[in-house]
Amino acid sequence: QMPGTARHDREMAIQAKRNLSKTTDPVERLRLKCLARGSAGIKGLGKAFQIMDDDNSRTLDFKEFVKGLNDYAMMIDKEEAQEIFRIFDKDGSGTIDFDEFLVTLRPPMSNARKEIIMQAFRKLDKTGDGVITIEDLRGLYNAKHHPKYQNGDWTEDQVFRAFLDNFDSPYDKDGKVTTEEFMNYYAGVSASIDTDVYFIIMMKNAWKL
């Protein structure tokens, strides 16, 4: 059975909503607003920015930034948006790099947590090329237990692809999951889990490490 994190997701969303009332840091507030939508919340904001980024420059000016926030239904007043933008526009160029933005928005994690996430990644990356693909999963999981496979809706590859899509960046679902994408996903889950010990136990159980 492939690991599900729906319960952690719910816990994280509830906790993020609770913490929102306690913080005045604009970046932390934006992070919590994303996490209140679940561990893919930060990824979802990335997708909204991707759509804004017409010229594929992977940078956003202030107007695009605000439009992306609005399209993602993030209720943020102009002053707060300006403050966040200034924090990310380190060189004062009037644009922000949105990969850097998403990495900074990602909740910080201890080394112990990063290490166990990497252990899971290495286990999944059977071919050891630094990317998890359908090929890797074929050697690890039996798709035949999946309900959608059993009722004939999905092929084995579609089961694996849906699994990979959980971790994949929303703006380039290419059926390949990089270390960065895997880390981003688990940073979201990690935000709802208070202690390293519990996070590590959860990961060990989920991935049989």
UniProtKB/TrEMBL annotation:
User: Keyword annotations for this protein?
Assistant: Calcium, Metal-binding, Repeat
GO CC annotation, single:
organelle
Superkingdom as given in the UniProt entry: Eukaryota
Q: What residue stretch is flagged as signal peptide?
A: none
GO MF, one annotated term: calcium ion binding
**Keyword Transcription part of the UniProt annotation:** no
CDD domains found in the cross-reference section: EFh
Keyword ATP-binding present in the record's keywords: the answer is no
Location of the EF-hand domain: 40-75, 76-111, 112-147
The record's InterPro entries line, in alphabetical order, gives:
Ca-bind, EF-hand-dom_pair, EF_Hand_1_Ca_BS, EF_hand_dom
User: Which SUPFAM superfamilies does the record cross-reference, listed alphabetically?
Assistant: EF-hand (SSF47473)
The name this protein carries in UniProt is CAPSL protein
Q: Which source organism? A: Odontophorus gujanensis
